[in-house]
Amino acid sequence: MENNVQVKASEKERQDYKKQSPQEEFQSILKEAVAVLGYSDEVFQFLKEPMRFLEINIPVRMDNGRTEVFRGYRAQHNDANGPTKGGIRFHPDVTADEVKALAGWMSLKCGVTGIPYGGAKGGIVCEPRSMSTGELERLSRGYVRAVSQIVGPTKDIPAPDMYTNSQIMAWMLDEYDHIREFDSPGFITGKPLALGGSQGRETATSKGVLYTLQTVCQLRGKKLKGLKVIVQGFGNVGGYLAYYLHELGAKVVGISDALGAIYDESGLDIPYLLSRRDSFGIVSGLFDDVLTNEELLQKECDVLVPAAIGGVITEDNADLLKCQLIIEAANGPTTKGALRKLSERGITVVPDILANSGGVVVSYFEWCQNNQGYYWTEETVEERLKEKMYASFLAVKETADQFGIDMKTAAYVEGIRKVAEASELRGWISL
Ligand code: GLU
């Protein structure tokens, strides 16, 4: 093993990703699910766009003394069920279109899991991997100053997302506290424990994905032990998930990071890979022989878990996948065209708004603890998360069976039902 980075991945993958319109994907499945429910077109017209969308430009003094201006967004999809909730991502490919779709998915995610929030999302177009800690801190504080009027513990509660973490949440909290002039731990979730974070928040999304997979195994009479799994992505979600799967005796045969992928059909040494990963989840640079992310997706496995970016399973590669089950740990990894092809091939896709909802569920627990000023044990958090994941899975499965639809549409149906009923009760729309 040598430390020479081979960057085989992939301008092409990034271009393909940019061609997708996540918002069109969201709207198209939304329309179908509204029809399944027999709701009026009003519901679709109301839910297809966020209720509020803010575009900002953030001036940041860089280390070289010059000011760079960063484009940022905050979308609040719907607040009929409570304050809006959703992460903030720092990524070069962030677009307005994507942030709007991600906010819509958050509304549905909160609906599916029955937590009293609507959906939101934020993003900043930037390349965090080439910024210093000081620059990241100034950018994070600048974002909060720009959105401070529309966020808050009873309005809109941010959290981590792609390439943001508990330290960034801590800076954002501090900036917000200064603006408001009082301590408001419930303003943001995914905080460090010392600043009012929750036990189990950092691992929550991966644990939720794991519980989902365990539920599928249980219902299908299969064992997790020995199952061959590919995890695309080795950041917060993919990294912890690979670790738990490995611990439980599943065979993690493939993982990837933003630069490349590694595959070994006899199983990878996940603890070793985790110990060598950098803070952006990059580990493939240790190997001479790396695959691209696209090549990894097409390798043989029982379960494929896309846990990186959106739009990676498309009509172009859906027929080439060699898995039996897909669990979406990323947001929006499978396009609608791909879903159709996979369903024809009998491959079940457990949708993102169900499978990766563990993050927002424990964010909700964190917010409850902040409001109470009383903190729970890790066991309590885990037990309540497990309960929620299991109940939500069964509800979606039942809806899928009842209407004869796939699980993605069924999850939309469950999510929309909650949002639409609350919106009707408030007198905003008629179902
Ligand atoms: N960013 C995560 C998601 O996409 C978590 C959001 C939250 O905790 O509010 O679900």
Automatic annotation (TrEMBL):
<keyword id="KW-0560">Oxidoreductase</keyword>
<feature type="site" description="Important for catalysis">
    <location>
        <position position="161"/>
    </location>
</feature>
<feature type="binding site">
    <location>
        <position position="236"/>
    </location>
    <ligand>
        <name>NAD(+)</name>
    </ligand>
</feature>
<feature type="domain" description="Glutamate/phenylalanine/leucine/valine/L-tryptophan dehydrogenase C-terminal">
    <location>
        <begin position="198"/>
        <end position="427"/>
    </location>
</feature>
<dbReference type="InterPro" id="IPR006097">
    <property type="entry name" value="Glu/Leu/Phe/Val/Trp_DH_dimer"/>
</dbReference>
<feature type="compositionally biased region" description="Basic and acidic residues">
    <location>
        <begin position="9"/>
        <end position="22"/>
    </location>
</feature>
<dbReference type="GO" id="GO:0006538">
    <property type="term" value="P:L-glutamate catabolic process"/>
</dbReference>
<keyword id="KW-0520">NAD</keyword>
<dbReference type="Pfam" id="PF00208">
    <property type="entry name" value="ELFV_dehydrog"/>
</dbReference>
<feature type="binding site">
    <location>
        <position position="109"/>
    </location>
    <ligand>
        <name>substrate</name>
    </ligand>
</feature>
<dbReference type="InterPro" id="IPR033922">
    <property type="entry name" value="NAD_bind_Glu_DH"/>
</dbReference>
<feature type="active site" description="Proton donor">
    <location>
        <position position="121"/>
    </location>
</feature>
<dbReference type="GO" id="GO:0004352">
    <property type="term" value="F:glutamate dehydrogenase (NAD+) activity"/>
</dbReference>
<dbReference type="InterPro" id="IPR006096">
    <property type="entry name" value="Glu/Leu/Phe/Val/Trp_DH_C"/>
</dbReference>
<dbReference type="GO" id="GO:0000166">
    <property type="term" value="F:nucleotide binding"/>
</dbReference>
<dbReference type="Pfam" id="PF02812">
    <property type="entry name" value="ELFV_dehydrog_N"/>
</dbReference>
<comment type="similarity">
    <text>Belongs to the Glu/Leu/Phe/Val dehydrogenases family.</text>
</comment>
<protein>
    <recommendedName>
        <fullName>Glutamate dehydrogenase</fullName>
    </recommendedName>
</protein>
<feature type="binding site">
    <location>
        <position position="205"/>
    </location>
    <ligand>
        <name>NAD(+)</name>
    </ligand>
</feature>
<dbReference type="InterPro" id="IPR006095">
    <property type="entry name" value="Glu/Leu/Phe/Val/Trp_DH"/>
</dbReference>
<keyword id="KW-0547">Nucleotide-binding</keyword>
<feature type="binding site">
    <location>
        <position position="85"/>
    </location>
    <ligand>
        <name>substrate</name>
    </ligand>
</feature>
<dbReference type="InterPro" id="IPR036291">
    <property type="entry name" value="NAD(P)-bd_dom_sf"/>
</dbReference>
<feature type="region of interest" description="Disordered">
    <location>
        <begin position="1"/>
        <end position="22"/>
    </location>
</feature>
<dbReference type="InterPro" id="IPR046346">
    <property type="entry name" value="Aminoacid_DH-like_N_sf"/>
</dbReference>
<feature type="binding site">
    <location>
        <position position="363"/>
    </location>
    <ligand>
        <name>substrate</name>
    </ligand>
</feature>
<dbReference type="InterPro" id="IPR014362">
    <property type="entry name" value="Glu_DH"/>
</dbReference>
